[in-house]
Structure formats: C-alpha cells, structure tokens
Amino acid sequence: MNKNIVILGTQWGDEGKGKIVDYLSTNSSYVVRYHGGHNAGHTLVLNGKKIVLHLIPSGLLHPKVIGIISNGVVISVSELVKEIEMLKRNNFFIENRLFISDAASLILPFHITMDIVREKKLGVNAIGTTGRGIGPAYEDKIARRSLRIGDLKNEKNLSIKLKKIVNYYNDQLLSIYKHKPFDYHLILKDLLEAKNIINDMITDTTIMLHDAIENKKIIIFEGAQGSFLDIDHGTYPYVTSSNSTIGGVITGTGVGPKNIDYILGVTKAYSTRVGNGPFPTELFNSIDSYLSKKGNEFGSTTGRKRRTGWLDGVALRYAVKLNSLSALCITKLDVLDDLKEIKICIAYQNVNTLEIYHNISFSNLENIQPIYETYTGWMEQTSGIKKIEELPKAAKNYIKCIEKIAGIPVHIISTGPDRNDTILVKNIFL
Ligand code: IMP
C-alpha cells in the first residue's frame, strides 16, 4: 500500500499540482509544503468556486486533513496571515489543523525589496522572479543569518537579531540601490502582531511527521514550482532558490527517503514557463495564442502571461530520472481538444554540429533545437471526462505515447479544473 506520496512538477511549474494534491488529499491525514514560499500559486476550484493558495498546503481544504509548512519553506508571516484570513472568509476553518515549523526561515520586507531592485538592475538579464523575496531569503538561510519562525517566540532576541539584519540590508540598499532604509521598529511591530495569530501553530514539525509515520498515517508532500526551476538541476541561473526536485522533500521536512512510498510527477499535456530562461519547445505562433487563451496561461501569483510550447519528452524523461518518479499525472488534456495536430519533442539537435541528444543536462541547453513527432488531434471535447474508456482514441494514443517516452505509467489524467474532472487510471493508494 502507498502511504506517503510526493506530488511534484516535472516541468517549469504551473503543472496543476494544487488540484491533484487537493484531489488525493481525500485519502490522507497530513499534507506538507516543504520548499519555496509564496512565489507558488496553487489554484483550486471547488464546486465552481476558485481558491488560490500560495503558502498553505492545498490539502487543508479537506476538513480533517492536517496541514504542515515545514522547515524547507521560506515564510512571509504577513502573507501567511492574509491567507489564513482569506480561508476563514471562505468558511474553511483551520483551527488546530495548520502547523508551522519553528525552523523555517522568514521572508522579511527587505528581502522583497532586494529581490525587486536587483532584478531591475539586471535589466534584460533579469531572472524574471516573482518579486516575492525568495532568493534573498534563501541566501540568508545559507549564510546562517536568517530569522526563523522560532525566533518569534522570544521578543528580546527577535528584536536584537532583527536590528542586526535590518542594518545589514539598509547598508546595501542605500549604498548600491539608493533605496530608502527600513525602520526596524515597524517590521518588529508587524511581526509581533502576526505572531499573536500564528503562535499556537508553531512547533517542531519534523517530530510531528516522525510521529505520524510511526502511527501509520498517510502523508502527502506537496511540491511547488517544477523540476527545471530546481536550484541544482534546473536551467541555472534561471531557476528558483530551492530544491523543487525530490531531494527538497528530505531536507525540507526531516523525513528520510525510506518513508516515501510513491512519487507522482505532475505533467501538463503541453509546456509552459513564466519568467526568463531556456525553453526549447517554446511556440511563437497562433498555437501559443490558442494555448494561452484556452489554458488560461496567466500566472496565479503575478498575473504574467506564461510562455507556452509543446510537451518536451527530453525534459520529461530527465525529470523521471531526477525524481525517481513512480508514475505521471497528465493535466489539462482538455486544453488540446481543438488542435488538428499535436507535437511532442522526442530529442534535441545541436544546431551547429547536428548531433542528436536523447538525454541532456538542463544546465547546458545552448544551441539546441527540438525534434518533434506529430500526432493527430482528437478534435472532440474531453473536458469533464471521468473514465479512461470515454476518451477519444487519439487522446488515448497521446497518453500512451507519453508513457512510452517517459518510461513510466500515467496513473491520473485531469480533464478540467474542478476536483471532479479527473480520471483515476489506477488507485494509487492500493
Ligand atoms: P523566484 O522563485 O520568485 O525567485 O523566481 C525564480 C523563477 O522561478 C522565475 O522564473 C519565476 O517565474 C519562477 N517561479 C517561481 N515560482 C513559480 C511558480 O510557482 N510557478 C512557475 N514559475 C515560478
């Protein structure tokens, strides 16, 4: 039986992980966010109502699920409080069901400013970050000068540490970017206010998870971003600042690899990327406009238009290996419904040497162009289909081709944004 499941993205994020976490959470006791911060945007549609979560684990919308934000996440407490209040307004009650690691690092206002002013200075070479302070916050974590959630519990120490780090940032902001300094009193006041709201949620989440494992509870680990935004394995430097591949689960929670039973790679039926950086199958024609419009490919965090492209089989095969994936979940299949032809990239070719690559490191994607296989489209509506038998023959064929390219089976297919628009090819909890 699969007990503990990781759900992560195999592309550049925005694969539709939130919906799948929510869908599978019906069977779980715990759902854990383990890396990234409020750069993520998980859109859920429940009975026609849209909820967007950035920090709170998607599974928490189920009334009995316990949500954990573990040590690997960087947390803006003001954003967290906003999200808690948004859920309350929408009648989701999370009292005694959300826990936050005392070892998680804080995102503070100067991290956000630093992210924005640095990107501005980079001009055309900008990463295209979400401007949420993610990079600077993780820098502080690695440099061992972070304030952590646990620091909120000791007002005197918090005040001393905060003063030091505010001075550190004010020096740089003023001298390099001519930005006005931050007043540490104001930041302290906001932190203490937020602390009053989240105080009872702060705990050692690693111990909590070890206890849950001992008690044979089902845990879902909810990935953010996607494999090729990983700081080590992605299209560096056009990446985020955390490990969005499988290793992030281990370091980001304190749960060992033997306690993971199944790893589901969520893959959109085509590709998208938001922000700058290599994107081999990117489209610049009318298919791009079609995919953006039909797939509503606009960022749920920043509202930016996502770049779109065909499904990249080379990237997918690499993601399967990077993450030891057990199976795939294909999302947004219905977005392809009106296309006469659909392509999948099966290899890359070096434009200078004409050498063909079936496997390649994603930190080195220069001078390559995709080689495609073309499939006939199904030109029929698949949205809302709940049984694999009901899919058109050409759509079933497309899924089979993905399985062949990836070398692993497809266990779930999503045919629409609603929790119920889902085909469960195999019950993964059996
Ligand atoms: P950062 O994570 O804000 O530093 O942004 C670094 C890169 O990751 C940029 O290209 C962002 O657009 C991208 N990114 C960060 N979070 C997400 C996400 O949740 N979905 C898609 N792209 C993301």
TrEMBL record:
Cellular component terms (Gene Ontology): cytoplasm
Pfam families reported for this sequence: Adenylsucc_synt
SMART domains: Adenylsucc_synt
Active site: D14, H42, K141
Free-text cofactor note: Binds 1 Mg(2+) ion per subunit.
Class of this enzyme: ligase
Keyword hit for GTP-binding: yes
Positions bound to GTP: 13-19, 41-43, 306, 332-334, 414-416
Keyword vocabulary terms for this entry: Cytoplasm, GTP-binding, Ligase, Magnesium, Metal-binding, Nucleotide-binding, Purine biosynthesis
Subcellular location: Cytoplasm
Function according to Swiss-Prot or TrEMBL: Plays an important role in the de novo pathway of purine nucleotide biosynthesis. Catalyzes the first committed step in the biosynthesis of AMP from IMP.
Subunit-level organization: Homodimer.
Protein name: Adenylosuccinate synthetase
Organism: Buchnera aphidicola (Aphis nerii)
Source species taxonomy: Bacteria, Pseudomonadati, Pseudomonadota, Gammaproteobacteria, Enterobacterales
